[in-house]
Amino acid sequence: MPSITEEVSIGDLGSLQTLPESFTWKLTGADSVLSPSSETVEESIPLIDLSDPDVTTLLGNACKTWGAFQIANHGISQKLLDDIESLSKTFFDMPSEKKLEAASSDKGVSGYGEPRISLFFKKKMWSEGFTIADGSYRNHFLSLWPHDFTKYCGIIEEYEGEMEKLASRLLCCILGSLGVTVDDIEWAYKAKNSGSKVGRRAIRLNHYPVCPEPERAIGLAAHTDSTILTILHQSNMGGLQVFREECGWVTVEPVPGALVVNIGDLFHILSNGKIPSVIHRARVNHNRSRISIAYLWGGPAGDVEIRPISKIVGPVGPSLYRPITWNEYLRIKYQVFDKALDAIRVVNPTN
Ligand SMILES: C=C1C[C@]23C[C@H]1CC[C@H]2[C@@]12CCC[C@@](C)(C(=O)O1)[C@H]2[C@@H]3C(=O)O
Ligand SMILES: O=C(O)CCC(=O)C(=O)O
Ligand SMILES: [Fe+2]
After folding, report:
1. Kind and range of the H or E element at 122?
2. Which whole number is the average pLDDT over 238-261?
3. Is the dihedral of CA 164, 165, 170, 173 positive or negative?
4. Which of 7, 305, 319, 321 could be bridged to 269 by S-S, CB 3.0 to 4.6 A?
5. Across residues 12-19, what is the average pLDDT?
6. Ligand 2 mean position to 220 CA, how many Å?
């Protein structure tokens, strides 16, 4: 019979002295490579200076080999990074009941709660988070911080604006490494001309409280992001790991001022599999809590279809994935999770 102590609110994880059964992950067995404490190796993802004259080649290589890299000289001010980090801290430091008042509703994506992928796992993840996906976060902010409402919304808006610019710039450079430009993408062209300026994006504020048994727990289980690319600001505490077929789990050591970029599933589709999405996860820590802020970018335009770029596919094809909008992809992802790319693969590609 489940004991009453098993009913744990994610808002209070940091105060627990022992790891509840529902948060204890299996370490051995067939799926051990995906288990939290499987071997890690002494490798590291590249650190790329965006002002380097060879930036296109460097980004291209990093994407093909790793699917993830860190960037320096990215143009985002340290003040803005500090501001959004302290906004996050202010939120997560609130009492559990207060945080739950900002819980995301059944329909809405914005708000407080477990990571969306948690529905695919039997065990619980050692983290809590706040998702900002549409304007409804403003209602939560208004009731959480009536006095600082304008200031906090301002930080989010500035962050979104700056990250959007950086994400577009990275997309251009990475496409450049494949010999194409944004103008080769049908949707980018449509977006420019239709006046639909609202791109698809979400910000996720993640908090990983201190954990009594980090070896047996996981902060965020292995996944790929359903994005073109994700820009992650991790505080000076590490925890992010990326998976590479050849070597296993690789820890991304924080570099002061640098941001982490990971390639998501939509880039995988756009590049016809040439720039694959990267599996990653977050470990937790015994001594210090950790905050990370993910900017999940789905491209510049809303309801347009994303498809393999014809110049990449080439005249003789084959195009491996069918055209799909971000909303449609998210729907499939949250039905079949890690089989989502397979689910939209063309069965008998001709060209
Ligand atoms: C716009 C998005 C992208 C989502 C779903 C939706 C809102 C929240 C995003 C995240 C944020 C945390 C990791 C992830 C894997 C999750 O669980 O929720 C992301 C997911 C995805 O990339 O699929
Ligand atoms: O916290 C991290 O390091 C990873 C977060 C992440 O993967 C996500 O928000 O999608
Ligand atoms: Fe992620």
Report:
1. none
2. 94
3. positive
4. 321
5. 92
6. 7
Q: Are strands 248-251 and 40-41 parallel, antiparallel or unpaired?
A: parallel
Cβ atoms of 253 and 44 closer than 8 Å:
yes
Q: For residues 189 and 10, give the distance between their C-alpha atoms in angstroms, rounded to a whole number.
A: 43
d(CA 112, CA 115): 9
pLDDT tens digits for range 254-303: 999 999 999 999 999 999 999 999 999 999 999 999 999 999 999 877 67
Which atom from ligand 1 is nearest to the alpha carbon of 333? 23
Query: Best mutation site among 116, 227, 231 for ligand 1, i.e. most ligand atoms within 8 A of its Cβ?
Result: 116
**Ramachandran angles phi, psi of 250, nearest 5°:** -120, 125
Domain spanning 48-344, CATH class:
mainly beta
Closest ligand (CA of 116):
1
For 123, other C-beta atoms within 10 Å of its C-beta total 17
**Does residue 296's CB lie within 6 angstroms of at least one atom of ligand 1?**
yes
C-alpha torsion sign, points 222, 225, 229, 232: negative
- For 118-162, what is each residue's pLDDT tens digit? 999 999 999 999 999 988 899 999 999 999 999 999 999 999 999
- The protein residue whose alpha carbon is closest to atom 12 in ligand 1 is 115
261 lines ligand 2 (CB under 6 A): no
List the chain domain ranges: 48-344
Answer yes or no: is the C-beta of 204 below 6 A from any ligand 2 atom: yes
Ligand 2 within 6 A of 239 CB?
yes
Task: Show the tokens assigned to 64.
Answer: 């093909």
Residue with CA nearest ligand 1 atom 3: 226
Residue 199 is predicted with a pLDDT of 58
For Cα atoms 280, 171, 319, give the angle at the middle one, nearest 5 degrees: 80
Residues with active-site annotation: 290
Given the cut 0.85, state whether the ipTM is greater than it: yes
DSSP annotation of 257 reads T
Q: Is the CB of 116 under 6 A from ligand 1?
A: yes
